[in-house]
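Exercise: predict the fold of this chain.
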Amino acid sequence: MRRVVFYNARINKWLRAPDMLQKRHFFGSCVINNCLYVAGGECEGIQRTLRSAEVYDPNRNRWSCIAEMTTGMVPSTGVVHDGKWFLKGLNSHRQVVSEVYLLASKMWSTTGNEMVIGWRNPSISFNGQLYSADCRDGCKLKVYNRETRSWTRFIDTRHHLGSSRALEAAAFVSLNGKLCIIRNNMSITVINISDPITVTEVDSARMWEAFARKGQHRSFMANLWSTITGRNLKTDIMHCQVLQV
């Protein structure tokens, strides 16, 4: 795929952006300095993983190529941390590989094994620290210690919800200084990192329902909810983003 669309919250519409330079699917993406970066993935008709990467600048409304990765991969997880974009995935031989894009030098480099071994999806860079799930439903979190170059247990909420696909943690997002764990069934756990003992479970169904009743949001939420859940209500969340206008 090359087609790109973006949501404009000011006019409540999805708009077309310029196509990517390279067709790709199963690629990694991130936002750095208000620019959209994509890297790796696969392309139909090409029997190998892609090394190419590109960036979209909304101010110029165009895509530009950036340095290629040293190894092609299909990313399984990625995070922007400390001004760097970390990616982890599988190469064409189905081996686990990892790369880091250094924004300062605009070049790719390999990453340390210590971080990669314990790094799993979802993860988030929050207040200068890198956090990762340590349990399938996100009830346990771990943090990466740069000094010891190891992952250590950060919190165990003791609110284990289960190991089903619906309860699997799909994304971490930061909202109002707190860490939100989003699961496939749209349930949310809110953790105050500065006071990890404080854990709040949010009845997301009621929250979405209440929001959807508010006038102009009604049709938008109906379409969004239908897109997210589908007819059988068994789809998985692929990405979650906090939008500030």
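Check your answer against the key: Residues 1-111 form a domain with the Neuraminidase fold (CATH 2.120.10.80).
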